Structures are given as structure tokens and as C-alpha cells.
Amino acid sequence: MGNQMIKGTPKRKTREEILELSAPLFAQHGYYGVSMRDVAAVVGLTQAALYYHFSDKDQLYLDAVAYQFRERELTLKDLLAGNGVPWERLERFVAGLARMMATDKDFLRLIQWVLLDTDETRQNTLAKYVFRDLFVAVHDLASELDPHQDAHLLAMSILGLVIFHFQTGATRKFMPGHRPHQHRPEVLARHVCELLKRSLAAVDGEAG
Amino acid sequence: MGNQMIKGTPKRKTREEILELSAPLFAQHGYYGVSMRDVAAVVGLTQAALYYHFSDKDQLYLDAVAYQFRERELTLKDLLAGNGVPWERLERFVAGLARMMATDKDFLRLIQWVLLDTDETRQNTLAKYVFRDLFVAVHDLASELDPHQDAHLLAMSILGLVIFHFQTGATRKFMPGHRPHQHRPEVLARHVCELLKRSLAAVDGEAG
DNA sequence: GTCTATATAAGGATAGAC
DNA sequence: GTCTATCCTTATATAGAC
Predict the structure, then answer these.
(1) Cα separations in angstroms, B46 against B2, B49, B52
(2) B181 touches chain A (CB under 8 A)
(3) Which of A105, A137, A156, B127 has its CA 20 to 30 A from that of A80?
(4) Residue B151 is part of which domain span?
(5) Cα distance from A34 to chain B (closest Cα, Å)?
């Protein structure tokens, strides 16, 4: 078989299918844990066909990860972009990020793989073109929330407070004080917002 | 050649050398990124010799990681165990953890690999026998710091505030507001302690 | 305890037909 | 654009000599 491409049909369809279907594999097992044969199997192609669309495994991986990041990044930036006092934007962002981390486990794992990547080129590419814009937005919000603090550190702390909880999700159930409702994104978002609000409100109280 | 073992000599020496020397490899490249050949090469043995000491690659990896964790865990628990008011113990712990994360990059990476592990048995083993004791200590401290809060969530937040900053260490330099001194463990520890102190002090102020 | 040699499988990548 | 067939490399693991 091999459904022949009708002339004029967008040529990108297969390529995007590969990107979409390979992402969960890379999320689960990482770059070295996934073979070109594995990718070919989920897409329903032979290994050789992948090399028509991508020069090598490295390129396929990089494109698949970047593709996922670009989609999610838009969602997250939207949460930060709207109007409202800084507190409202923070709450909206923390809630949205928590929901995404809870729902979209593959995305969370891709973030973790990128942070562990030892290929400098690959990591820098993703950091610059994918993380950066989002971080800029969080950074700006942080400096609005408290102009007296190091906005870079505060921004990283906000992200870390949310993301780390979900990174440890699988091991949390063996730890003391664990209760299932802690996995719910609203519960975590509330915990994080309260922590930050009290912390920054304390500064206002002193300064104002 | 092959230096013959004298009877009575502790048999464990080679085994422990393998554990020590393979850990940095696994820290850098993860389970799938390291071959038995790689391990053999750094130890100065042939591949086959490894199978005298370990039944398979899985066992070698598990033992190597557990070995590293046990060592570090003792150091961290010591920081928490001493006397002093809760604040002092928190500051000591945060400073010590930050210093360890900054110094011992391999250990930080091993933590990240464990969090990404999809082998449930392996992850549960490490979580139960290695993370758990440390978490218990942080959990207890958290409930002393603020009895009105969810100690489980607070403990995780304390750990996340420190660890996440170092996880993102490699990509941070492309983000706005970055300055080199932020990588210094004392600077981060101070940031984290101030954040927590203000947050929990705010509660005291309201409650007391 | 460690070696050499090897079985056996899985990996990335290419050539050439269709 | 995708297939079949194949090359070459690397991987885990074992057998048996020393």
C-alpha cells in the first residue's frame, strides 16, 4: 500500500504526525531510551521512512521536543499576559501551570529531560528559543510583585514551587503526611500562592 | 596478570570501586546512556568482569545510585538533627543542602534521574529506603515551623525551592536578570530562607 | 577474579526499487 | 514518500580458560 500523496496535499502532514506521536515516547524514555524503530512503530511507518523527514535521530528528537514546548508556551504566556493587578496574574499563572503539570505528564517529563540534557547545543537551543520567552514574562511579573527583591531568583522560585511538587509526584506517596488531595492542582496552587502572598505581603507591611 | 586476591583480603574492594566510579557516569548520561563497556573502561576491567560482581546492568545501576544516596543522606540528616530553635535548623539545612547541590553536581543529577525513572520497582526502592528518612526529618521540621500548615506540602516546597534552582543551573544563564553570584549557594540559601521566614512570620503575626 | 572469545540482539543509517 | 533489504556498530550477557 503506502497511501500515495495526491499532488497539492500539504506535504507536512506526515512530518507533524511523527512529531506528535514520538513526543510521548521521548517523554517516557528519553533520547537514548527510544529507538528509531520504536518511533517508526507508533507512527506506522518503517524506520527508513523517518529519514526522509529528518536527517537523523538527533534532529527528530529536537524538533519533537521544540514542537511540544512551543504549543504549551503559548498557553502559559497567555495566562501571564492579561490585565489585572500582579496578584491576580500570579494566581492565574500558578493555577494554570499547576493544572498543566497535573494534566500533561508528558510535558512535565520533557522539561525534566531537557534539564538533564548534556548536549549543550540541544539544551541551549531549547533554553533560548523555548524557555526564554516564558521566563521573561514570569520575571517581569516577579519584579512587579516585589521591586525590592531579585526578580530572577523570585521568578525561578515561583516556577520551582509548582514544578517540583509534580516532579516528585510518583515518589510522594511513600512520604509521611501524604494525602491524595495534595495531587490536585488547585490544592497545590493554593499552597504556593499563600506562601508567596504571605512572604511578599510581609515585605509590604515593613516597607509601607 | 590480574592481581590474584590474597586470602583474607576484604573481597568487597573491587565491588565498591565499581560503584564509586560508575556513579559519575550514570549521573551524566543516565541508565540507557551508559554501557557496561563504559563502566568497565573507567574501572579498568573488561566487561565480563563486571558480571562477577553484579548479576546484570540493572543491579549495578541500582546499587551504584543507592550507594551515593546513602552517603549524602547521612550528611543531610545531620544538619537537621542538631538542636536549636526550628529557624536555626531550617537555615542550617537550607544552607547545607544548597552547598551540596552546588558542589556535588553528580548527586543532583542522580536525584533527577531517579525522579524520571519509569521502572517502578527501582524508583520505589530508592524512594522508600533512601529519600524517605530525609523527608521525614524535613517534614518534622516543617510542622514545627508552622503547625497550622500542611507539613507535607511545606516540606516539599522547602526542598523544591533549593533543588529547582540548581536543576535549572545550566539554562539560567540565558534568562533575564541572571548574574553569576546567584549560583553561589549562600546567595540562594539566603533568598530561600528570607522567603520562608517572611511567609511563616506573617502567619505568626496574624495568629499570635 | 579476571581474561578472551563469542553468542545474540538491537541500534543508527543507507541503497535502490517502486 | 515509503518500502525492502542490508551494512555496520554497539549492546547485554555467557562460556570456559587461566
Answers:
(1) 11, 6, 11
(2) no
(3) A105
(4) 3-207
(5) 10
**Contact in structure between A154 and A142 (CB atoms under 8 Å):** yes
Cα separation, B178 vs A153, in Å, equals 8
Q: Which helix (H) or strand (E) holds A181?
A: none
Is there a contact between B164 and A159 if contact means CB atoms under 8 Å apart?
yes
CB A65 within 8 A of CB A23: yes
Say if residue B195's pLDDT is above 50. Answer: yes
Chain A residues near residue B132 by CB distance under 8 angstroms: 174-175
- The Cα–Cα gap between B67 and B72 comes to 9
CA end-to-end distance (rounded Å), chain B: 74
- How far apart CA A167 and CA A196 sit, in angstroms, is 20
The CATH number of whichever domain residue B57 belongs to comes to 1.10.357.10
Whose cell is 566487561? That residue is B47
pLDDT at B6: 43
Phi-psi region of B35 (alpha: psi -120 to 50; beta: other; left: phi over 0): beta
Task: Decide if B199 contacts A199 (C-beta within 8 A).
Answer: yes
CA separation for the pair B121, A29 (Å, rounded) = 16
The secondary element (H helix, E strand) that includes residue B22 is helix B13-33
Q: Does A157 touch chain B (CB under 8 A)?
A: yes
Contact in structure between B27 and B110 (CB atoms under 8 Å): yes
